[in-house]
Amino acid sequence: MEKKLAVITGADGGMGTEITRAVARAGYRVIMACYNLQKGEEKRAMLVADTKNEDIEVWPIDLASLSMVAAFANRLLERGEHLTLLMNNAGTMETGLHITKDGLERTASVNYVGPYLLTRKLLPLMGEGSRVVNMVSCTYAIGRLDFPDFFLRGRKGSFWRIPIYSNTKLALTLFTIGLARRVKERGIVVNAADPGIVSTDIITMHQWFDPLTDIFFRPFIRTPRQGAATAIHLLLDEEAGMRTGTLNVSCHPKLLSEKYLHHPKLDELWQLTERYVEAWL
Questions:
Q1: What's phi and psi for 74, nearest 5 deg?
Q2: DSSP state of 263
Q3: How far apart are alpha carbons 20 and 10 in whole angstroms?
């Protein structure tokens, strides 16, 4: 029997490596979508040795480049293989305002627009039993969407990394809800995973208050393996495959309030994002 196919973005990072490990151990063929190819190849060699699964590939992707996201997806579309698992794991928290060549604020592109485009383009390869998991964050609760500022500068006013990061995670949560509703009849399930506060490369020390923040949060910080657990559950657990459009914390669904299930900007976000990515669809 041919192995099922999985795509995992940010597979060269801490949680991405753990997710890849679990999926490879479950017998899937895995495409590690990596920003850092050298690091990805090093992780692949380690994972092949650990899982005894040699069907692991490393493909380059930069979610800050919509043309590169489209090229990645087109490469898969040309192969025409059924895609069972798509894990949108990659993320960033920029420390300054950086505008991509597509005119987008970089955090918004990497955390939301890039994953949106990748998922939309790969939908033709999915069907009954396919799963999409988006890595969100508890910070979605403090996010807000002001258009077009969200796409172009991250937020209204001056650059501030935490609110901008939160805005992107709100957008990804709303994308999860909207996509789940649109593809439910095709048997595709779409869920969001909140990993908690995880020790990853996103946590950086560039502001004077960061060491204090680190000391305060240290008791609550999870390892990448702990942080990846909920996403792995959503990808591989049989019971998790029976629900869609949910937010999940510590391997359990968390009830989303009507504020998010019927967010006033849910449909507007979808329509505006479609305009930003239409050239690549």
A1: -65, -35
A2: -
A3: 10
d(CA 70, CA 275): 15
pLDDT per position as a tens digit, 225-272: 898 999 999 999 999 999 999 999 999 999 999 999 999 999 999 999
15 within 8 A of 199, measured Cβ to Cβ: no
d(CA 10, CA 107): 14
State yes or no: is 165 an active-site residue. Answer: yes
Q: What is the pLDDT of residues 9-68, one digit of tens each?
A: 999 999 999 999 999 999 999 999 999 999 999 999 999 999 999 999 999 999 999 999
Q: Which residues contact 35 (CB under 8 A, 6 or more apart)?
A: 10, 12, 60, 61, 62, 63, 90
- Please enumerate in sequence order all residues whose Cβ is within 8 A of that of 123, keeping only pairs 6 or more positions apart, or say none: 183, 188
Burial 52-63 (b: 16+ CB within 10 A, else e): ebeebebbebbb
Contacting residues for 63 by C-beta, under 8 A, at least 6 apart = 9, 35, 69, 90, 109, 110, 111, 114, 115, 118
| Helix 114-122, helix 161-183: angle, nearest 10 | 20
**Quick one: CA dihedral 220, 218, 199, 157, positive or negative?**
positive
Task: Please state, as a whole number, how many other Cβ atoms lie within 10 Å of the Cβ of residue 207.
Answer: 12
Closest CA to 111 of 141, 88, 144: 88
Q: Count the helices and strands in the chain (H runs, E runs).
A: 11, 8
DSSP annotation string for 54-71: --EEEEE--TT-HHHHHH
Which pLDDT band, with edges at 50, 70 and 90, does 122 fall under?
very high
- Indicate the helix (H) or strand (E) that contains 132: strand 131-135
Of the residues 35, 112, 140, 165, only one is catalytic, namely 165
